[in-house]
Specification:
Nucleotidyltransferase, domain 5; 5 helices; 5 strands; globular; 155 residues; alpha/beta
């Protein structure tokens, strides 16, 4: 068995939540070294589906999809995030009430159930700085990919 895989995930929605530009990011580490990272848009910019919670769930879901695609279901997985809501819902401590995140939650639970040894841990934002920085990079890159987004912010 390999060393524990650590997943750090983050999401944001700026310049307003809801209805801004929702971005996600995650990174996978083992033995303190990043083995994979990803970032991107979590929803259509300036849509009602663009929320911070959608971004957080998208980050977690994409991280678990990557782990499944890379056959990590039998590894020890520790998922860390600074979203108290997402971590608590994944641990069964909070119910999912928002219609916008129910499908994301359901898909994430299906993915979670593929792992034989997975745990979820809430961490303060300071301990999630790498994922936080990646989600901010995704936000900044959104403007490079689509300069018209700047016009929408100005309006």
């Amino acid at each position: 068995m390999l060393a524990e895989l650590q997943v750090y995930f983050d999401g944001l929605c700026q310049p307003m939540n809801p209805g801004g530009i929702a971005c996600y990011a995650f990174l996978i580490k083992t033995n303190g070294k990043t083995i994979y990272k990803e970032r991107g848009l979590a929803a259509e910019p300036f849509s009602k589906g663009a929320t911070n919670n959608v971004a957080e769930y998208t980050a977690l879901m994409k991280a678990l999809e990557w782990l499944v695609a890379n056959r990590s279901e039998r590894e020890a997985i520790r998922v860390r995030g600074d979203s108290r809501l997402v971590i608590s819902q994944m641990m069964g401590e909070f119910k999912v009430k928002a219609n916008a995140i129910v499908p994301l939650f359901q898909k994430t639970v299906l993915l979670k159930n593929k792992f034989s040894n997975i745990m979820f841990q809430w961490i303060p934002r300071e301990e999630n700085s790498e994922a936080d920085k990646l989600s901010e990079e995704a936000y900044n890159n959104a403007f490079l990919d689509d300069p018209k987004l700047l016009d929408k912010i100005r309006k």
